[in-house]
Design a protein that fits this description.
InterPro entries: Spectrin/alpha-actinin, Spectrin_repeat. Keywords: Coiled coil. Pfam families: Spectrin. Residues 3-64, 208-242 form a coiled coil. The chain is mainly α. The protein has a single domain, classed as Methane Monooxygenase Hydroxylase, Chain G, domain 1. Helix content is 85%, strand content 0%. It is rod-shaped, with a radius of gyration of 40 Å. The mean pLDDT is 88.
């Protein structure tokens, strides 16, 4: 009777493993929204816990069959063969579910990381847009133009590492068919805004550099003119002090 019960327990265990495999490993999942992906991750975590909890039952079966084999070798030998098959299938199921759970957790981590990089780069784009707007309607002062140019250039020196991460993470998920529509839409919007603002910022940078160069040249010419006028003023004052007659002066002084 004990052998019959153990045989029944082995059959039930095998049936449960078959159902678990169908439910957790053979279903085709499509992750088209973050909610679907998150639910799949949580479901697979529960599946892993459920499967691992059966380890106690498997151990009890193993111990009972070993005990029976010592008392009734003939019955125990037959059950030991079935037990080995169940143990092998159980270990395979555990490994596959662990693997799928790990994969889904990695995918979810990849999605969260992508969102974090997008948030960082969006904040940078907002800052860049603000700096570009600050270059409009500047006062015609050399210091104001120079400060605006330096401020804009400091933002443009932003490294490209984050954008590389965004591209690679997004492509990895899209290639796996994970959230591909949502990610494609996000990346398209981000890239379009990045290209637009980058080109605008570089154009403003070039314009400010040209404006600054013109203002410096004008400032230099005014300084030279002022120095020439000051020298001429000193010469005329000297002539007047010495009561020099105008017709005795050089032509330019006249």
């Amino acid at each position: 009777e004990k052998a019959v019960n153990l045989k029944k327990d082995l059959a039930e265990m095998q049936e449960w493993m078959t159902q678990a495999e169908e439910e957790y490993l053979e279903k085709d999942f499509e992750y088209k929204s973050p909610e679907e992906l998150e639910n799949a991750v949580e479901e697979m975590k529960r599946a892993k816990e459920d499967v691992l909890q059966k380890e106690v039952r498997v151990k009890i079966l193993k111990d009972n069959i070993k005990m029976l084999a010592t008392k009734v070798p003939s019955s125990g030998q037959d059950l030991a063969t079935e037990l080995n098959i169940v143990l092998e299938n159980y270990q395979l199921l555990c490994n596959r579910i662990r693997g799928k759970c790990h994969t889904l957790e990695e995918v979810w981590s990849c999605w969260i990381e992508l969102l974090q990089y997008l948030d960082l780069e969006t904040a940078w784009l907002n800052n860049l847009e603000e700096r570009v707007q600050m270059t409009e309607n500047l006062p015609e002062k050399l210091d104001a133009v120079n400060d605006a140019l330096e401020s804009l250039e400091s933002v443009l020196r932003h490294p490209a590492d984050n954008r590389t991460q965004i591209r690679e993470l997004g492509q990895t998920l899209i290639d796996g068919g994970i959230l591909d529509d949502i990610i494609s839409e996000k990346l398209e919007a981000f890239n379009a805004r990045y290209e637009e603002l980058s080109h605008l910022a570089v154009s403003r940078q070039i314009a400010l550099e040209q404006q600054l160069q013109t203002m410096r040249e004008t400032d230099h010419m005014l300084q030279v003119l002022q120095e020439n006028l000051a020298e001429l003023d000193r010469q005329l004052t000297s002539y007047l002090t010495d009561r020099v007659d105008a017709f005795q002066m050089p032509q330019e002084a006249q």
